Amino acid sequence: MLRLTTIAIVVSNAMKSAKWYQEKLGFEIREHQGHWITVAPKKENVAFHLCEGFYELEPGNSGISFTSKDVKKEEATLRRAGVEFTTPTTKEEWATYAMFKDPDGNEFYILEE
Question: Would the pLDDT of 25 be above 70?
């Protein structure tokens, strides 16, 4: 069976982005060989491959989501760390969620478990 290992995210500066993911979200840098930089939450198998783009970035909803037992609490913690939210914690029929963005405008969901 196939297993997911990395998800590519286009960024303007891979080292700067890796530092942001590490400092703001608590990710660890898994690999850094030349242009290949991956970051991931501790104890997770899937990592983000930060792909430095040489063209105009097209920021927006990445379609990538994280889960949390308490989205509102997670939002407060990340805001204190300097993470910018594009959608505050919102309760809908389908889920309770919030959205934040990285320095390049890539947006991510946090969905309540």
Answer: yes
User: Are 49 and 66 in the same domain?
Assistant: no
CB 31, CB 79: distance < 8 Å: no
Same domain assignment for residues 43 and 69: no
Query: Are the C-beta atoms of 40 and 83 separated by less than 8 Å?
Result: no
CATH code at position 96: 3.10.180.10
The mean predicted confidence, pLDDT, of the chain is 91
Amino acid at 87: T
What average pLDDT does the segment 2-7 reach?
A: 80
Alpha carbon 76 to its chain's center? 16
Percent of the chain with pLDDT over 90: 74
Which domain covers residue 2, as residue numbers? Answer: 1-55
pLDDT reading at 58 higher than 90: no
The reply to whether 4 and 44 lie within a common domain is yes
